[in-house]
C-alpha cells in the first residue's frame, strides 16, 4: 500500500515540478495509561500521512496531508509555498548511494500481540508495585509499529520499518509521616522489557528516598544517574548541531581538533546500532545512515548535519536530518553512544552525591553551558557507599567544563531517548544544601 501511494504521489508531483521529495509514513500504535492503580485509558491508533517537498527556482516548498485523496492538491500547495521562501542554492535532495543493512529493529511478534496481553503486562507491573508497599501514581505502556518510505527525483527509494515498546512507572510511598516519590522507564525494539524488575527498582528507589537529611553546601564529586545525565547532556550536545555552529551559537565552533572532553571518552552518533531505538537505513532525507565520530579520545572530530546545513558549511550530511510526514527535516541525534576506555567504581568515591534526576535542565544556557538544577532522589556517598537520602539540593556548574573531566561509572549501559551511556561521574560540582 505504501508503495502504491508513493507512485501515485510521484505521478502527481512530476506534472508540476522536476525536483521533488516524497515522504510517506504509517504508524500503528497502542497506548495504555493508568490513573493510580487502575487502567484508565486504552487507545489503538493508525496514522498515515504524506509530506511533499519541492524545489523550484532554488526555492523550497513543503506541504503535507493525511487525506490520500488530496495528494494532487498537496503537491500543488507545496509548489505554491515555494513563493514564500527566498532563493537559496543550498537546498538539495539526496542522491542514490549504497544503503546499509541494519539489524534487530523489527519485532515480528507485534503482529500477534493483543491489547489484552499488553494490559496484563501493565497490570502486573502495577500489582508488583503495590505488593512492594508502594502506591502507583501513574503507569503507561506503548507499542508501536512504524513504516516509512522516502523517494525523490534523484532516484532515491528507501523504506524503513521498525517496532518500539515503552513503559513508565511513577510511585509514591508514605511512612511515619514521611513521603517519597520515584519514577523510571524502559524502552526496547522488542517486547522483552522486564516489568517486574522495573517495578522493584522504582519502589526501592522511593523507599530509599525516605527520611532525607540535609547536606552541607560544598563542592562534591557527583554521580549523574541516567535521567540526570541525559538532562544535562541535551545542553552539551546542542553545541554539536551544525545549524548552531553555522549561526555561531555553539561554544565548540572553530574547535575541531581540540580536546574538549576527558581523553578517555569518545562520542559516536550511530544510527546503525543493532537494536538501537533510533536505528534506521537512512535519515528523513534519504541520506544513507552512517556512524559519525563526534569525539575521538577526547578530541572534537565532527558536528552533525542535514543536507541543507552541510551545504552551508561546505561539507557532507552526516545523515542526521530526521522528520515525520508533518515536518521538514531537522538536525537530530540518532543513537548517541558515550564510550569510556576506563570506568570508575563507586567504591573510589570518598565524598560525593548521587542524583537520580534533575529538575530544570531545560533552563541551562545553551551557549555558555551554565546550569542550576534541583537534584531529585539524591543520596550522600561516603567511602563508596550510599549512606542516606538528602533533602532537596541545588546543583550548579558548567556542562562544558564538567565534560573535560567526566568519567564513566561502572554500571549497566542503557538507552534513554537518543543517549546510550553508563552513569556519569563529574567532579567539583557545587551542591547547595537546603
UniProtKB/TrEMBL annotation:
Record keywords, A-Z: Hydrolase, Metalloprotease, Protease
Pfam families membership: PmbA_TldD_1st, PmbA_TldD_2nd, PmbA_TldD_3rd
EC numbers on record: 3.4.-.-
InterPro entries: Metalloprtase-TldD/E_C, Metalloprtase-TldD/E_cen_dom, Metalloprtase-TldD/E_N, PmbA, TldD/PmbA_N, TldD/PmbA_sf
EC class (word): hydrolase
Metalloprotease TldD/E C-terminal domain location: 218-433
Domain named Metalloprotease TldD/E central: residues: 110-210
GO annotation (BP), single: proteolysis
Gene Ontology CC: cytosol
GO MF: metallopeptidase activity
Record Gene3D superfamilies: PmbA/TldD superfamily
Domain (Metalloprotease TldD/E N-terminal): residue spans on this chain: 20-78
Protein name: Metalloprotease PmbA
Organism expressing this protein natively: Methanobrevibacter oralis
Amino acid at each position: 500500500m505504501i508503495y502504491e501511494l508513493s507512485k501515485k504521489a510521484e505521478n502527481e508531483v512530476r506534472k508540476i515540478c522536476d525536483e521533488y521529495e516524497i515522504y510517506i509514513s504509517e504508524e500503528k500504535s497502542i497506548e495504555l495509561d493508568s490513573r493510580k492503580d487502575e487502567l484508565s485509558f486504552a487507545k489503538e491508533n493508525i496514522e498515515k500521512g504524506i509530506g511533499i517537498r519541492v524545489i523550484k527556482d532554488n526555492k523550497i516548498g513543503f506541504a503535507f496531508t493525511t487525506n490520500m485523496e488530496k495528494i494532487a492538491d498537496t503537491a500543488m500547495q507545496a509548489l505554491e509555498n515555494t513563493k514564500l521562501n527566498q532563493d537559496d542554492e543550498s537546498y538539495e535532495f539526496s542522491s542514490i548511494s549504497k544503503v546499509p543493512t541494519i539489524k534487530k529493529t523489527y519485532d515480528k511478534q507485534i503482529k500477534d500481540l493483543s491489547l489484552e496481553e499488553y494490559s496484563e503486562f501493565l497490570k502486573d507491573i502495577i500489582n508488583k508495585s503495590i505488593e512492594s508497599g508502594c502506591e502507583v501514581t501513574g503507569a503507561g505502556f506503548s507499542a508501536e509499529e512504524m513504516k516509512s518510505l522516502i523517494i525523490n527525483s534523484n532516484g532515491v527509494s528507501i523504506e524503513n520499518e521498525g517496532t518500539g515498546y515503552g513503559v513508565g512507572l511513577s510511585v509514591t510511598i508514605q511512612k511515619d509521616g514521611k513521603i517519597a516519590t520515584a519514577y523510571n522507564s524502559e524502552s526496547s525494539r522488542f517486547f522483552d522489557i522486564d516489568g517486574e524488575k522495573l517495578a522493584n527498582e522504582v519502589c526501592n528507589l522511593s523507599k530509599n528516598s525516605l527520611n532525607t537529611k540535609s547536606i552541607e553546601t560544598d563542592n562534591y564529586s557527583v554521580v549523574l544517574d541516567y535521567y540526570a545525565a541525559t538532562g544535562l547532556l541535551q545542553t552539551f550536545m546542542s553545541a554539536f548541531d551544525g545549524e548552531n555552529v553555522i549561526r555561531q551559537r555553539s561554544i565548540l565552533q572553530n574547535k575541531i581538533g581540540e580536546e574538549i572532553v576527558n581523553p578517555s571518552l569518545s562520542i559516536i552518533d550511530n544510527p546503525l546500532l543493532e537494536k538501537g531505538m533510533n536505528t534506521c537505513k537512512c535519515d528523513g532525507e534519504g541520506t544513507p545512515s552512517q556512524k559519525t565520530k563526534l569525539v575521538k579520545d577526547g578530541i572534537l572530530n565532527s558536528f552533525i548535519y542535514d543536507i541543507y546545513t552541510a551545504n552551508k558549511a561546505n561539507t557532507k550530511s552526516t545523515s542526521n536530518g530526521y522528520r515525520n510526514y508533518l515536518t521538514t527535516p531537522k538536525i537530530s541525534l540518532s543513537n548517541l553512544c558515550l564510550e569510556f576506555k576506563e570506568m570508575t567504581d563507586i567504591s573510589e568515591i570518598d565524598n560525593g552525591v548521587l542524583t537520580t534526576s534533575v529538575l530544570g535542565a531545560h533552563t541551562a544556557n545553551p551557549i555558555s553551558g551554565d546550569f542550576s538544577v534541583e537534584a531529585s532522589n539524591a543520596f550522600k556517598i561516603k567511602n563508596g557507599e550510599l549512606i542516606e537520602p538528602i533533602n532537596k539540593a541545588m546543583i550548579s556548574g558548567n556542562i562544558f567544563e564538567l565534560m573535560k573531566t567526566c568519567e564513566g561509572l561502572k554500571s549497566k549501559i542503557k538507552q534513554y531517548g537518543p543517549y546510550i551511556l553508563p552513569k556519569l561521574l563529574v567532579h567539583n560540582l557545587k551542591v547547595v544544601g537546603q
